[in-house]
Amino acid sequence: MSGETARNMFEGIWAEADRRHREMKDSHGALFELFEAYRQLDADERTDVDGLLAERLDSDIETFRFDAVALIQEFRIQSAAPDLVRLEERLQREDTPGARFERAKVLRVLRILETRS
Question: What is the pTM of this model?
Fold first, then answer.
């Protein structure tokens, strides 16, 4: 499967899992589907999907960022570290109610990634 195809496939899985689990009021259930879908990717496909995750860190949609951070943490995606740093800096400047909590999570994931490098 080409990188673009893997990326498009993963975006479709993400959207469908998010939709279904929102209807069931089980937002964390979507994460388990995403974890399983990511596990099934080969190395080249993962590289392309990793790019999608990095892009989602820059989203204004908090749920996109939440899922992306969770995947990055679960699979220890080192290539996302610079994007996590940018997100942490952005959250440091925000005054939204959840920004400090999201920032704390991003910092935890960065520490996890640092211990692996």
Answer: 0.92
